[in-house]
Amino acid sequence: MRKEQNKIGLVAGPCSAETRVQMLETARALKHIGIKTIRAGLWKPRSRFGSFEGVGSCGLVWLNEIQQELGLKVMTEVALPSHVEETMKAGIDMVWIGARTTVNPFMMNELAESLRGCDIPVWVKNPVCPDIELWVGAVERLLHAGLKDIRIIHRGFCAIDHLPYRNVPLWEQAEQFRTRLPDMPFYCDPSHIAGKRELLLSVCEKALSLHVDGLFIESHCCPQKALSDASQQLTPDALAELLNLLNVPIEK
């Protein structure tokens, strides 16, 4: 568990990779404020048919450009074995497994098998429902497949009475999970908990008071034009202001 005075990790980037220009502009600005790892979704699970479901594998080329031009690490979400195969072939540095996948033990088994033998960090978000056993079980399947570098993301839980948040944080659930697997790096995703930019500061402050190891946060060069999660993304400059307000040292 992180000591209060230690530096925190930070992963930032847009909810979705939309265009090459958007990705490179955002990544350059994030590098300027000290971010070393860029996140961006290529395959986006959506509730409604016809919603923007990501650019798919063509976005891997943009992530490779960010690696090569800017020297940054990049990561994206995987939900199918085919996603794993494509990201591994492209040399993506890290992947994460989203809340809509973590909730499904069958899919977790398939992903664990497809990741067997991989030596990159694999991040696991909590399931959409507040079920600690599902969350722990998802990690156990990855451990059984021999993965050595597993990291955790708390992004809140779906609930009918969720206001003012997009996803209720249920901090006690997160703390219970950490007691079960205390040695795994534990990050908070304040963007998906808050759902609105104006709530990000308070969510981050609460997460840091619980000594999380880092933040996994959405940042877009032009949030008002974002194709997904527009209301919760920050510009890189606004992210820098948020970090200044939080007044915590960031891992370089």
Secondary-structure element sequence? EHEHEHEHHEHEHEHHEH
Strand content: 5-15%
Helix content: 25-40%
Distance between the termini: 19 Å
Strand order of the largest sheet: 1-2-3-4-5-6-7-8
* Count of DSSP-assigned helices: 10
Which spans have pLDDT < 50 for at least 5 consecutive residues?
Answer: none
Q: Total strand count, please?
A: 8
Judged by helices, strands and strand pairing, the structural class is: alpha/beta
Specify the biggest β-sheet: 8 strands, parallel, barrel
Mean pLDDT value:
95
Radius of gyration, taken over Cα atoms and rounded to an integer in Å: 17 Å
What is the overall silhouette?
globular
Please tag this protein with its features:
252 residues; 10 helices; alpha/beta; 8 strands
Short recap of the structure:
The chain is of the alpha/beta class and 252 residues long.
Report what the structure shows.
With 252 residues, the protein is of the alpha/beta class. It is 39% helix and 13% strand. The chain contains 10 helices and 8 strands. It has an 8-stranded parallel beta barrel with strand order 1-2-3-4-5-6-7-8, surrounded by 5 helices. α1 links the parallel β1 (9-13) and β2 (37-39). α3 runs parallel beside α5. It is globular. The mean pLDDT is 95.
Chart the SSEs and their pairings.
Elements: E1 9-13, H1 20-32, E2 37-39, H2 59-70, E3 73-77, H3 81-90, E4 94-97, H4 99-102, H5 105-115, E5 122-125, H6 132-144, E6 150-154, H7 171-180, E7 186-188, H8 190-194, H9 200-209, E8 214-218, H10 236-246
Parallel strand pairs: 1-2, 1-8, 2-3, 3-4, 4-5, 5-6, 6-7, 7-8
